[in-house]
Amino acid sequence: MNITVLNARMNKDQDGYAGAVEFQVDGHKFPYEMTLFKDKAGEWEYNLLFLNESGSEEDILAVEEYLEENDDAFIRLLDAAEATLKV
Q1: Long-range contacts at 42-49 (CB < 8 A, ≥ 24 apart)
Q2: What pTM, to 2 d.p., does this model score?
Q3: Cβ atoms of residues 48 and 26 within 8 Å
């Protein structure tokens, strides 16, 4: 699955991290947004949504399965968001 990052952002506060990555998947009609959350002691959690308008359930389920099974793809999206953190 070929993923292209369109936009990314991340913020840190006293509660942890919150961010989002907007991305396109080759062959899919609509782009996605993955929101990311991590509290001070936790693991990364995310939600996967269509960015602007709803696409097919098959497409979003395929992307979700791909991200669950492919750590490199998830880390690439996470890295895109983390790269926007202000130090």
Answers
A1: 42/16, 44/78, 46/74
A2: 0.91
A3: no
